[in-house]
Amino acid sequence: MTAHLLSLNVGLPRDFAWREKTVHTAIWKAPVQGRRLVRRLNIDGDGQGDLAGHGGEHRAVFVYQIDSYHYWQSQLGRNDFTYGQFGENFTVDGLSDQEVCIGDRYRVGSALFEVTQPRVTCYRVGIRMNEPKMAALLVAHGRPGFYFRVLEEGEVEAGDEIVKVAAGLERMTVFEINALLYVPGHPRSQLERALRIPALSAGWRASFHALLEQEQSGGELTGNAGLAPASGPSPAWQGFRPLRVSRKVRESSNVISLVLEPVDGDPLIAALPGQFIVLRLRPTPDVPALMRSYSLSGEPSAERYRVSVKREAHGAAGAYIDDRLQVGDVLDASAARGSFTLRPGDAPTYLCDGRAERGSATVVRPVLWLGPSATGPTRSMHRADGNVLICCWPAPGRRRH
Asked: Domain containing 19: what range?
């Protein structure tokens, strides 16, 4: 089947009010008519708002498929999509993520392109879609889309045929590369295979190198259902890495959540449920830094870390985070670490606490029920009687409580 460019979409950055803050974004793309020149870094009339996480030579043109439009219309029960809905420059008929390989080259109009990486989904697509979970859904459902690098500048137009002119080395599809980073279990042979692809972007290469080094140092990259053994995986990198505060959310009168994203825009290593990171805080430049460990409180992601911090009486770190830390500030953060982690599996896992009650008897109370996957599209949390909190991820054939 011959692929075609259905719509050519561009948009320049603008400020958008969202959750009581201003987001500078170019996620809104609109179709344009006629031929447009595609340059090394951009299509004429297009731009990116956050150059740390978007744009650049290896992310010059974002491609998304009309088949995925149809899929999401069905999944979300919507019929209001327009071209550019997912922030893509090229809306295409064909070029499935399960067929296109990293390194494949395509001629569109008079321009020549090379596939470099899957899309690392940003929260801004959730703003554009008016669906806060959209970034996580794109990852969980394995429909990321992909980026082109511009090998030869030229003009393109909606309706152009997309002609494959060369195949990438190793023949690893966009879907396979995406799963290799996001899905638990990272086979050494597949990591080495991915790293042999010259066209793979630098950010994804760095992430796969980190996973490979973790495996070589004895870290466990695969696992069974239930809790990990006490040894746990080794951290994905040594020392600290600069992460920018992209969101600061007040959860209660004394709890603040921070969303941290890489300054360089390169992917993180998705943490295992139950892991934590160490933050190096500098409330005052002329005194030693504060080192604090905080459990990760967001869904596993290679795009961001989320921690929640309780402000304690006379606590220096909590007071600094609550009173002085601002969105846009940069913190030093360790890689995710910790051995008491939940691993994926087919059976539910019960976390219980035991306490002495009713004389000398120990009563075991269920605290959490965790379904077989934390990546399902829906979740619910309900308080039960007394101290019992039940957290359910519905699965086929299981009753939702």
From this structure: 3-192
